[in-house]
Amino acid sequence: MINAYADIAVMRHAKVEPVHNYCIKSRLPVINAGNGEGLNAEHPTQALLDIFTIHQSFPLHKSLTLLLCCHPSSRSARSLLFCIALFHNIKLLLCTEENCKLLPEDEAYLRQTGVTYEYLRNIKEGLYSADVIYIAGYKETANHLPDSNLMLTPDLLSYLHPRAIIMHPLPRGYELPYELDNSVHCAYFSQAENGVFVRMAILQGYFNVIGGR
To answer: What keywords were assigned to this record (predicted)?
Structure first.
């Protein structure tokens, strides 16, 4: 029925499979607005606006060190890794809990594309060299709180080099203290604004194709 009413479908779902299943059956172009987590979970438009935001501060034809502070199988993290791996001279620092690793399929992809990566258990170890600190949070339950060594707090800002930027896909949680908002390193507000423009461009591209049929 949606095929009869719309030109484009934008779909977001808490699970991975429904978006893929809908794409197979739909006659409309489908934009994945985020689906699930883990294997095959993606958030493509988030990755595009993230790349755009990074490129504003660090031209991606040069070397870049990305400090990723989150569960590496989250959809935002996975999609960003897929995109960032298309560029050369990328070093990835993964600040995660001990039992949180990249999926084997993602590790294979990074090795294939030449991205070097290492795991950290303390965020301070990566702040000295990071160009981009990308925070997306960790899993929190009633019986488990993430280690404080994984968190970026205001007292650690002095470890960042002057041009480093802090990013977050939002909405924010405990992992992004409000005290960071006035820092010169804060880029997540402009990142969110870029999301409007990037998604406008995506929609315009689709409408141009549809209009030219």
So the answer is: Transferase
Q: Is 1 exposed, middle or buried (0-12, 13-18, 19+ CB in 10 A)?
A: exposed
> What is the reported pTM?
0.92
The string of pLDDT tens digits covering residues 125-174 is 999 999 999 999 877 655 566 788 889 999 999 999 999 999 999 999 88
CA distances from 104 to 100, 101, 159, 184 (A): 12, 8, 32, 36
CA distance between the termini of the chain: 22
Q: Which long-range contacts (CB under 8 A, 24 or more apart) does 7-15 make?
A: 7/206, 7/207, 7/210, 8/203, 8/206, 8/207, 8/210, 11/35
